[in-house]
Amino acid sequence: MEVALYNIDVKILSLQFPLCFPSPKDPSSFSCKGTFLSRAEIVGFLVTHDVKHRRSLRFTIDDRTRCIPPVSCSTSSPLLTSPCATHQVFDRLPQWRKTCFSDSVGCQGAGRITVFRGIIQNIVSDVVSGTDPDAQVLHWLDL
Amino acid sequence: MAASSISSGALVTLQELNPSSPIFKQGASFRVTGKLQEYNLEAAIAVIVDGNVSLKIDTQHLNINLRSGSIYQFIGELHIEPNNEAIIKARVGRNVDGLDINLYHQSLQLLRKFEAEQINSRTS
């Protein structure tokens, strides 16, 4: 039976990304083993980050099953809940990167699943770079 | 789908990282967790322990403050010395003080079961 979980941040592992395929009926949603979803939440170690032309910040999260291909947030997708993120994030990028995006921190990102040049990625609208050491364990238990 | 070029760190316990284990391979990426027992500042070598097993971590590429007695998690590549001693060359690391170790180990078992199911369903 098909289950639709549109507009919900569904907790998943990066291992499950290759199981997601664009829905032929609705290009904004993805079919993942009979479940239709459009958004995903991932939790793991932030292992890389870089800024592209001051337009988008791309980062990679290692959730132990795979390194999730570029997770990105662009200036058109405001970062909502990160305490140190603002809509003018790129004006204050050096400080923001230092506090939120030093590699070696735990990171939780939630956003839209998209495909870009054949790579599934997550355009995050909500990032929390957290210090809660149990965040990933709780994420696993919610899968 | 193209995959990311960065290897993910397979999550293992220190007990599982022994020379007789099939995962004990030069250059393999792992994520390990343990309590910092000692740290050699000059060589940037840390030793973490979990139960009665210890592991050396090369932290020369990290920029974190290490405190003896705190719990740390590292992701890096396994380097096997000529004497068969393992050392993880860490590329990222973080302090995870407060981590519920028992819950962590139990959820890891559940997660492995879940992953096996996912992989089986993909191949079937």
From TrEMBL, chain A:
Gene3D superfamilies: Nucleic acid-binding proteins. Keywords: Chromosome, DNA-binding, Nucleus, Telomere. The keyword Nucleus applies. One of its GO terms (molecular function) is telomeric DNA binding. It comes from the Eukaryota. GO terms for cellular component: chromosome, telomeric region; nucleus. Its main location: nucleus. The keyword ATP-binding does not apply. InterPro entries: NA-bd_OB-fold, RFA2-like. It is found in: Chromosome, Telomere; Nucleus. This is CST complex subunit STN1. It comes from Erythranthe guttata (Yellow monkey flower).
UniProtKB/TrEMBL annotation, chain B:
GO terms for molecular function: single-stranded DNA binding; telomerase inhibitor activity; telomeric DNA binding. InterPro entries: NA-bd_OB-fold (IPR012340), Ten1_animal_plant (IPR029146). One of its GO terms (cellular component) is CST complex. Transmembrane segments: none annotated. GO terms for biological process: negative regulation of telomere maintenance via telomerase. It holds the Pfam family Ten1_2. This is Uncharacterized protein. It comes from Erythranthe guttata. The lineage of its organism: Eukaryota, Viridiplantae, Streptophyta, Embryophyta, Tracheophyta.
